[in-house]
Design a protein that fits this description.
339 residues, Beta-galactosidase, Chain A, domain 5, 4-stranded antiparallel β-sheet
Length: 339
Amino acid sequence: MKNLRTSVESYRHDTEDAEADTKHELAGLVGRLRIDGTLVLPESATVDSRGRSKELVECDFYHELTLFAESPILHITTGFENEAQDHRLRILFPSNTGAKTSSADSMFDVIERPATPEDGEDWKQPAASTCPLRSFVSVSSNERGLTIATKGLLEFELLEQRGGTLALTLLRSVGWLSRITMKSRPEAAGPILEIPGAQCLGSHKFDYAIIPHSGRWLENESYLESDKYLNQMIGTFVPKGDDDSATLSKGFLSIKPSTIRLSAFKISEDTESVVLRLWNIAEKSESCSITLGFPVSAVEMARLDETVDDTQSLRLKNETEIEIDVPSRRIVTILLKPR
């Protein structure tokens, strides 16, 4: 295996020209591919933080790609042995969609952002090109799309190269809490304290998934595939009992349509009611049907603090079925009183 050719004059290094060892296996309904390689990087920034050191370090990495039969989700685990300081590690996903905007979920919303943000009037610092996500980010055209789901990786950037490329941040190594030499702001963001532990040296493992699809994320419902990735099914073998009629499982909640997302299903903080909190991911109002796996004697609309809200209404069809209209991007909280 050969190391990646690098130039210490360049601030950017990638694995595009690197030679790597690959091996694959197919076991029943699961296929796996492993890629091992080494990324050669400058050891650190220069003392004045305006360049990179001429000393190089080798950072071993691997990718494990797993694909299950009949699943559109490509599971990826990346391992990285970080020996370098003062750098950002990202993985790039060219989409060839021509996308000029990205859509990423946040708390109770999915936000569309341009690839090149515009500065506001009289801003003291330029608008950041990186953006936050909660669990997925998507780019698309009318014909094709690409959604990336992540476990704890919360920063991305949409680059215009190669038809719209999603750059997912895996690692950000820094040695100071704040600096005054940054191009991104004219002043320090906080105390100028050295924090060597934030260089994140050592072994790291990252989990994320690629979900290609046709059309746009909302119409294709790629957010449901993201849910499947983040909340995977767990199989358990149960020994045969004496009674074949025994019930081994029971559903407690069903929500339709899929654009109505579940946020909370819990016991109330102050009462004995069950709290059901939903929000509408769609761009239009949705008529929501809720089916419960237990009977209720009463239901009430509530605010986020779980106090009763008489200004909103819902319909209790029977002791297990509820109907409610949920406006676009709206959060609704329902108090259920089990019978």
